[in-house]
């Protein structure tokens, strides 16, 4: 059996096939303050996945003021990470920024865009409300131009989809 390359983020071993580890790339680390990044960008079939990983996330069904404030803050931060990473990746792809893509990173001619949040310890029924909240804060222009699909899954679903090694 061949050895599978992995990236460990938030205590999960993600399969590192056809990926651009944007968070660790020179183009990102040299950019300075104000730009946020997802963990990595991965091509899987005809999908361009922008993957953010978290160990935990506030329960969207907990109505306490403190929890709701934390939830909104996390949603804004993750939305920024998706948008900034898409912009940074696109700037590399069109040649504005230094080409930081690995030699073995292959982008199909046509892809659909996926913003994927993987939360290690999370109840599946909470994911729908997080998707709704993330989708609601993404700018209308982004949805019109890029048409991203937004998914929030937990560790078990990520393993079923062969995104992580369980």
Q: How are the strands of the biggest sheet laid out side by side?
A: 3-4-5-6-7
Mean pLDDT: 94
Distance between the termini: 16 Å
What class, by secondary structure content? alpha/beta
User: Helical segment tally?
Assistant: 5
What does the main sheet amount to?
Answer: 5 strands, mixed
Describe the protein's architecture and organization.
The protein has 166 residues and is α/β, with parallel strands linked by helices. It is 36% helix and 23% strand. It is built from five helices and eight strands, in the order E-E-E-H-E-E-H-E-H-H-E-H-E. A five-stranded mixed beta sheet has the order 3-4-5-6-7. Strand 1 and strand 2 (12-15) form a beta hairpin.
Secondary structure layout:
Layout: E1 6-9, E2 12-15, E3 19-20, H1 26-29, E4 40-44, E5 47-54, H2 65-93, E6 112-119, H3 124-137, H4 140-146, E7 149-154, H5 155-160, E8 164-165
Parallel strand pairs: 5-6, 6-7
Antiparallel strand pairs: 1-2, 2-8, 3-4, 4-5
